[in-house]
Amino acid sequence: MHLDGVKAQIFHPKDLGFRCELPFDDLAFKESFSFNKSNEVLVIHEMWAAREARIARDKGIRYIIQVQNGYEIFRKATMASVYPAYEHAELITCVSDDIHACLVFLFPEFKQKIVRLHLSVESDVFKPSEPKQNLITYMPRKLEKHSRLVVNYLARKLPDTWSLLPIQNMNQSEVAQALAKSRIFLSFSELEGLGLPPLEAALAGNLVIGYTGQAGKEYWLENQFHEVHCGDIRQFAILTLDKINDFDRGRIDVESFDQNIALLKNRFSVAQELADLRDLAQRLLARLI
Questions:
Q1: 263 and 273 assigned to the same domain
Q2: Are residues 54 and 151 in the same domain?
Q3: Which range marks the domain in which residue 197 is found?
Q4: Which residues of 61-75 are buried (b: 16+ CB within 10 A; e: fewer)?
């Protein structure tokens, strides 16, 4: 990928020849451990920043840290080992307002080099279908204990005209089809950098009930999203049954979802992601000169 004079390459330090199936045809791979200090920068994931940044510094490699989850910064690390990694980073990128707030709280002295990026969601893939069915979708792998409890709390009270559809062992197309036909999505996001399933479900025209995962608050829009505090299983079940009743009685204004969907499409668009990446490229080039 090339963008405004910046070329991106995939680097597999454990196996330079490693390849896997990816839905892109313009990928480039870095096939050596040699880095040009004047025009090459290593991107390090936050979970390995303490270790990998130390190695990069020892070898004179310039780097940026990509933070995808503000709650994974200290995985197998402490502030003492993490701090130097962020101190010497050229830039620090993040993908949600919540992560940005976490980083500013932890490292206020580095605020000027924290760059907010937006992820794009494929709104041409995740979209509603007509007619909708009385289906409730959820992902069992997300907080498995919580999802299992909620499903069992609903078991004897779910109307015969409604059913639960677990999304598991599905490819992207199958996930999109499931979300397109369901009316309600149960969110079990747990302290995530930016949980995409609830967002994708909303774009597919679902009413979303459940946990925000903290970062989800930036897209938790009125009417279409309904928060349950993490761990409140009984309230989760009660709210779900209440919304089922509202659907059955025609009290859910589904047309009001259209405005939310349009806003989310724009906020998490490819155009917005590219604009953010161009800004990142310019800031990075300015530091390398």
A1: no
A2: no
A3: 135-267
A4: bbbbbbbbbbbbbee
